[in-house]
TrEMBL record:
Biased composition (Low complexity): 194-215
A molecular-function term among this protein's GO annotations: zinc ion binding
Keywords associated with the record: Metal-binding, Zinc, Zinc-finger
Identification of the protein by name: MYND-type domain-containing protein
Classification of source organism: Eukaryota, Fungi, Dikarya, Ascomycota, Pezizomycotina
UniProt xrefs under PROSITE patterns: ZF_MYND_1, ZF_MYND_2
Length: 299
């Protein structure tokens, strides 16, 4: 029996070697010269590898002679058509991107295109990720990590611990900034001019018609700047005090994924949103609110 088993194993090894040799002779089936149908060898040396057409990158050739022959045979027109189609697709993508950018600029903010629930979730997650980034990269402790003090200006239910109270207060400051921060796509409003003066000068200006008209013009400009700032806020147009209260309520619910009750990591955000770019989007959103990035560099 041992002799028979040995012979069978020898036959199997011989068959395997023969199959490998035949495969080497046949070459790589996925890389074939377009013109002469010659296959690229397995483990091909640099001089044996097939070359692609430099324009369309779609056809393979084993030599320049095959490429010239195929070019004369009709690839010239096909290659030009392929190149034109690729260029047209790129232009279409660029135009689509520009159109989307223009549309986003016309809207109040990035959050405008999201549903109310999703916009609130991303606001909460942008804040949560910023807290973790500042703790990790700068050693700055805020929100749930802030040192606790006895002064509490926010009354929450007795079941809420001190770290969650601190996180809520810091998140409320975040929303305060968001309500006054202009969106990245719009210019910042001009700073208000100083109007401090002595009582006598203010009396004189009140009695002067030209000063009165100038003051009215300044008030109109200030009001217009305030309106423009509200229109281009980081927050969407549907944001109201009631919506803010809803957002703060959501942030305190441990049953929601986007909650201040737990910290968050970059990998968890990618997994949650199924978007590898979401951490960057949330960081940009937080930068738009705070006016600087996590390394304290202004926008």
């Amino acid at each position: 029996m041992d002799i028979i088993n040995n012979k069978l194993s020898m036959l199997k090894s011989i068959n395997k070697q023969q199959q490998q040799q035949q495969q080497l002779l046949r070459g790589n089936p996925s890389r074939i010269c377009t013109f002469c149908k010659k296959r690229e060898p397995w483990n091909a040396q640099p001089g044996q590898k097939l070359k692609r057409c430099s324009r369309c990158r779609a056809r393979l050739y084993c030599s320049r002679a095959c490429q010239r022959s195929d070019w004369k045979k009709g690839h010239q027109m096909a290659c030009a058509a392929t190149t034109t189609t690729t260029t047209a697709n790129k232009s279409k993508d660029e135009n689509r991107t520009e159109t989307e950018t223009e549309r986003n600029e016309k809207e109040n903010s990035y959050l405008e295109s999201l549903s109310e629930e999703e916009a609130m979730n991303q606001l909460i997650d942008a804040y949560r990720l910023r807290v973790e980034d500042e703790r990790i990269y700068r050693g700055y402790l805020r929100g749930r990590y802030a040192p606790q003090n006895t002064d509490t200006d926010t009354i929450i239910t007795t079941n809420t611990d001190a770290s969650l109270q601190s996180a809520l207060r810091d998140f409320q400051d975040f929303l305060d900034l968001a309500e006054t921060s202009p969106s990245p796509s719009s210019p910042s409003p001009p700073p208000p001019s100083s109007s401090s003066s002595s009582p006598s000068s203010s009396t004189a200006s009140a009695s002067s018609p030209s000063s009165s008209s100038e003051s009215k013009t300044q008030l109109d400009e200030t009001e217009q700047s305030r309106k423009n700032e509200t229109k281009s806020s980081v927050l969407p147009s549907w944001w109201t005090p009631q919506k803010r209260a809803d957002c703060e309520w959501r942030a305190l619910q441990s049953g929601f994924w986007s909650s201040l009750c737990a910290p968050v990591e970059k990998d968890a955000i990618v997994e949650r949103y199924r978007d590898s770019m979401m951490p960057m989007k949330l960081r940009v959103l937080a930068e738009a609110v705070y006016g600087y990035n996590v390394m304290d560099q202004p926008r």
